[in-house]
Amino acid sequence: MRGFHIRRFLKGFVVEMGSWLLLRESLLIIMAPDLRSRLEELVPLQRERLKEIKKNYGKVSLGDTTVDMAIGGMRGINGLLWEASLLDPDEGIRFRGFSLPECQAKLPAAKEGGEPLPEGFLWLLLTGEVPTKEQVDTVTADLRSRSKVPGHVFDVINAFPVTAHPMTQLTAGVMALQTESEFAKAYETGIHKTKYWEPIYEDAMNLIARLPEVAAFIYCRTYKGGVLHEADPNMDYAANFAQMLGFQDELMHELMRLYISIHSDHEGGNVSAHTVHLVGSALSDPYLSFAAGMNGLAGPLHGLANQEVLRWLQELVAQVGGDVSRKQLSEYVYKTLKSGKVVPGFGHAVLRNTDPRYMCQREFALKHLPNDPMFKMVSDLFEVVPPILLEGGKVKNPYPNVDAHSGVLLQYFGLTEQNFYTVLFGVARALGVLSQLIWDRALGLPIERPKSMTFEYIENYCESKFAA
């Protein structure tokens, strides 16, 4: 009751002063267990856990490595510690042990029965714990307090022509933010390695907080004639991002919450995640590391897949028409395959079943836009494509992945500028890769240095094995 009376008194005082919102945010940070304090409790425990793993299992083999694996993109090689998430070939992604449906059920939402708040995902990714709504509110308030972007960042972006790719502008903006790095300053003046994670945490949280405004600025200058939309201090992270992009529709806010959450992490082996980890292992600060990861995300084989899906669908409509039967869809799929192309949005390097990120987007569409023609086409493809891909006998996963659906949802709500989609992906992916980067430094993980080989080395090594 004492806490209630304190809050009641302060609320009355602040309402009288006309600043209840600002004090409410301050109170949330002071009175609720905050994220950094929880990490301070967890770091020593996880350091001891790592010591025990190295002591008890340090010499245990994690599996054989073949030549095919080494020269085939290192697929299937277990060689990276990544706590934030784990990708199971059959079940799909698990965030700290929780499946996507479990996250949707357990993590706090902005409204009853709504999509989970990305701030809750951030807490989960960093701590491994499901937060309370009060704890999520402290993260929202903390990110809001860190969100002001220095003016020189906009000057750097404005130096680019508006025709520059949005990802080029994003990485430049992130590099411009690097002048604010707390870790770079701390390392310059001298800091004990056991404390590295603390300024890394500050950098990571500042970067996550500022990315939405940087991304929205890029969107508005590139596509909307430079007309900017003010941030709304009453909104959560994802809703405010959508607001700054110019979308006031509450359903679009819900979609943005879903989009950021499901794209936040996908274990550590993908290009962008691995790049952030690799560059960070050299003690590059989060800004340098994240910018490097975003340059990887900009590659056509990583972050552009949902654009390719949309283009393929638009070509289908242009050639066949909007009212397409399943027979016509099948014929178009066969035509695509016979031309030597793949059907975009189907298959995955690791997954062997339908991507659960696809399924939760499908459920969102069934709930909110069941009669949309493009969604109906995507639903029909869900039934048509897998059996055709299985006919060849070579495809390990004929099922749709996350990219088969995300572009269609964004188009429906009016975000039609496809070159911007990778920027959205980048804003979302920051939550996972920067969470892991904090733990990389907290655990004292070393600089990454795998062994490379030449043709001659491989040939001589294999021949000696055969001779033996």
UniProtKB/TrEMBL annotation:
<dbReference type="InterPro" id="IPR036969">
    <property type="entry name" value="Citrate_synthase_sf"/>
</dbReference>
<dbReference type="InterPro" id="IPR002020">
    <property type="entry name" value="Citrate_synthase"/>
</dbReference>
<dbReference type="InterPro" id="IPR016142">
    <property type="entry name" value="Citrate_synth-like_lrg_a-sub"/>
</dbReference>
<dbReference type="InterPro" id="IPR019810">
    <property type="entry name" value="Citrate_synthase_AS"/>
</dbReference>
<dbReference type="InterPro" id="IPR016143">
    <property type="entry name" value="Citrate_synth-like_sm_a-sub"/>
</dbReference>
<dbReference type="InterPro" id="IPR010109">
    <property type="entry name" value="Citrate_synthase_euk"/>
</dbReference>
<protein>
    <recommendedName>
        <fullName>Citrate synthase</fullName>
    </recommendedName>
</protein>
<dbReference type="Pfam" id="PF00285">
    <property type="entry name" value="Citrate_synt"/>
</dbReference>
<comment type="similarity">
    <text>Belongs to the citrate synthase family.</text>
</comment>
<keyword id="KW-0808">Transferase</keyword>
